[in-house]
Amino acid sequence: MAEPELDLIDSHCHLTLDPLGDQVDAVLDRARAAGVRRCITVGTDLADSRAAIELARRFDNVWATAGVHPHEAGKADETTWSGLAELLEKRCQESFSQGPTAVGETGLDYHYDLSDRASQRTAFARQIALAERYELPLVIHCREAVDDALAVLAEHSQRPAWGVFHCFTGTRAEAIRILEAGWHISLSGIVTFKNATDLRQAAKAIPLDRLLIETDAPYCSPEPIRKIRPNEPAHIVHTCRFLANLHDLHPVELGQRCSVTAERLFGLTQQHK
Hints:
This protein is α/β, with parallel strands linked by helices. The protein has one domain: Metal-dependent hydrolases (TIM Barrel, Alpha-Beta Barrel), CATH 3.20.20.140. The protein has helices at 24-34, 46-58, 78-93, 117-133, 146-156, 172-180, 197-204, 236-246, 251-266; strands at 8-13, 36-41, 62-64, 103-109, 138-143, 163-166, 184-187, 211-213. The strands form two sheets. A five-stranded parallel sheet has the order 4-5-6-7-8. Strands 1-2-3 form a three-stranded parallel sheet. Helix 4 (117-133) links the parallel strand 4 and strand 5 (138-143). The chain is globular.
């Protein structure tokens, strides 16, 4: 009997960024060959969100999000917000597959503080409102800011939790707080790093119906190819195998269960591309 094949979703990558953007056809070919059937390319500002949506229109196995990354929050102005709303409004007017499948990535980054924290919180709140207006999930970037991120969500969200804390790198206690608040958690290749002991303890606490996997490509190459740059969707298989071992599952089963979770969260099964 033939060995079952992987059927994975890279739930968070940046196919528009260099050097992936210059070779996206080849990147997607390598992804398909590795068993990565679908990718979500994530917008980080207005221009990048537009580029992500164009990629989703070109490829039937790519979906897009639209948002303003916390690093870009200090640059956002009313033109940014009206442009983002226009992208989301077009999604309502066109077929479901032609527009963003989520708002983000948005959130808070207190590690680099490339935008001042007040601007980050304001941009986060505005995108929460957009996600609720257009009934879309949120893709949340949160680095060294779990307390404030959950506080902003509690203050500004009027609906039950609907979204994912992507590329989670926090502690088990932080993961449990995020899960108890109703959010999903996505893990990248960072969980495979030799010094990621605390993160692996957190990973064990995440139920599979709330777990997604991602590359965050072109960043975060996993072990055993950590030194290879850039990262790309095909490399998610290493993270899948690592997490499968952590959960005592076959990689195909782990991948299938995470894919079902991603389909449900982002509505991918409803999209006919």
